[in-house]
Specification:
Radius of gyration of chain B: 20 Å
Number of helices of chain B: 4
Largest sheet of chain B: 8 strands, mixed
Strand content of chain B: 35-45%
Structural class of chain A: alpha+beta
Shape of chain B: elongated
Helix content of chain A: 10-25%
Helix content of chain B: 10-25%
Order of helices and strands of chain B: EHEEEEEHEEHEHEE
Largest sheet of chain A: 7 strands, antiparallel
Shape of chain A: elongated
Order of helices and strands of chain A: EHEEEEEEEEEEHHEEEE
Number of helices of chain A: 3
Largest interface: A-B, 42 and 42 residues
Oligomer: heterodimer
Radius of gyration of chain A: 30 Å
Chain lengths: 266, 214
């Protein structure tokens, strides 16, 4: 029989995991590469919240409907000449008696390259199984729950929303360009068509996969030697216990429970 | 049967766990198990001083040390009815040995080998019926204590002398065990904040508490 037994049911484990999600904070990933026809630098920061716990013996914690709250930032340049027709104001010549013929030069419009900074925040839900991993590290007992495999993320709704927001961002970014008014709708449509849903998912998917890969939530971390009573006077020094072994498993009886057992030194 | 029952959190410290805790506790604070007059209480970290300075001078040569061994527990005996002190519900037995040293005569006489000054020793086995109690139920930082209910000397020492000794030893050991405090964070390994909802219960070879995360 272990010296100390601590059991938590699914409700308590849910609380532990939600606290661990808060403790985890924000994770970030960044990269640069092709974004449809463009080259973009991009990054994503994400945090986790919520999720419904299912405990499965011997060591699995399932978390369903975890909210992955992410913020996507990307920046890319658009050479408008690639999307808009070049046109010239033709030469105009006027014959002036006694002076001769005077011509204006031909003026050709060269479209600028526009930098598009873009941010987008949203959340999507995913479900995954985690493995319970107790370990002694650096003098501390730790119980981690580590994701077993990165789940498939359904990005189709998010990608459509991002594409729509991107259209608005492009419109705002190029609005100042002279003569662009009548061409604006066509420009935005052409750029979005070039990027497409595939461009968004091809960018966001790997970034979020990077965020979730090896995801580890820490539900317990305490020193192996724990002071349990403070000093209570000149003849009563502090009392500490030394946790020499610790294990953590899921047990299923009439109720599923996460059971932590420990041995303490005499 | 689940451990948490109708609650969300369960903490249990087994007999061996309590033994280890008592070992750590009384090793850190040994004076709680030793009570002696000035001759024996030269280091009050080790022995609690019984102050006899106000006694009449002709008694000052009498010195006493009562030294308990670190106790160990038996929460669920195989046959409760056959125990010296049969435990009731939520009660358990603590066993300890006690050594009583009585110095009859002054230390000076003792050092000079005066036949009139000599030490008498008596070693006894004790069984003490105890019950867990809540010292403090503050969520997260509360603690569980031990209450001594009854004490018996194991073996035959004569009725009257036995009753006198049991009375004295009960007072001393009740005080010593009353100082034992097992914080909630021992039950939860310091990692989870417990709000006590039921217990402490002495059952199935352990002391158990039930509650929720606070």
């Amino acid at each position: 029989m272990p010296d100390i037994t601590l059991a938590a049911d699914q409700t308590a484990v849910t609380r532990l995991l939600h606290d661990a999600e808060t403790l985890l904070g924000t994770r970030s990933a960044s990269n640069s590469g092709s974004f449809g026809p463009f080259v973009a630098s991009y990054g994503v920061s994400a945090s986790l919240s919520g999720g419904t716990v299912t405990l499965t013996p011997p060591k699995t914690i399932g978390l369903a409907n975890i909210a992955l709250n992410y913020s996507l930032n990307l920046s890319f340049g658009i050479d408008l000449n690639s999307f808009l027709p070049n046109f010239c104001i033709p030469q105009v010549c006027v014959h002036i008696p006694c002076v001769g013929t005077i011509c204006t030069p031909q003026i050709c419009i060269s479209w600028p390259t526009i930098s598009i900074p873009f941010s987008f925040s949203d959340s999507l839900n995913f479900s995954a199984d985690f493995e319970v991993l107790p370990q002694l590290s650096g003098g501390n007992w730790i119980i981690d729950v580590k994701i077993l495999s990165v789940p498939a993320l359904d990005l189709s709704v998010a990608a459509a929303a991002i594409l729509a927001a991107l259209g608005l961002a492009i419109g705002a970014a190029v609005a100042w360009v002279p003569f662009i008014g009548p061409l604006l709708a066509g420009l935005v449509a052409a750029i979005l068509a070039g990027i497409g849903i595939a461009g968004i998912t091809g960018l966001l998917g790997p970034l979020l996969t990077l965020i979730l890969s090896g995801l580890t939530l820490k539900i317990y971390e305490e020193p192996a030697i724990q002071q349990v009573l403070p000093s209570a006077g000149p003849h009563d020094p502090a009392v500490s216990i030394d946790v020499t072994a610790l294990d953590c498993v899921v047990q299923q009886t009439d109720k599923a429970e996460l059971v932590i057992t420990a041995s303490i030194a005499a | 049967m689940s451990l948490t029952g109708s609650h969300h959190l369960f903490g249990g410290i087994s007999e061996s766990g309590i033994d280890h805790f008592l070992d750590v506790f009384f090793t850190a604070r040994p004076h709680l198990l030793a009570y002696g007059t000035s001759v024996y209480a030269t280091n009050q970290n080790l022995v609690t001083l019984i102050d006899t300075s106000s006694l009449p001078s002709f008694l000052l040569g009498l010195n006493l040390l009562v030294q308990f061994d670190i106790p160990h527990v038996d929460i669920t005996p195989k046959n409760s009815a056959a125990e010296l002190l049969p435990p009731g519900t939520d009660q358990f037995t603590i066993y300890s040995d006690v050594l009583i040293r009585f110095l009859c005569g002054t230390p000076a006489q003792s050092r000079t080998g005066d036949k009139g000054a000599h030490e008498i020793t008596l070693k006894l086995q004790l069984a003490a019926l105890c019950a867990p109690r809540v010292i403090d139920s503050t969520p997260g930082s509360g603690s569980i204590g031990l209450t001594l209910v009854a004490l018996k000397i194991v073996g035959d020492t004569g009725v009257a002398i036995e009753q006198i000794l049991e009375c004295i030893l009960t007072a001393l050991l009740r005080w010593a065990l009353g100082q034992v405090s097992i914080p909630f964070n021992v039950f939860t390994l310091d990692g989870i904040s417990l709000t006590l909802q039921q217990g402490p219960v002495a059952a199935a070879n352990q002391i158990e508490v039930f509650g929720d995360i606070s």
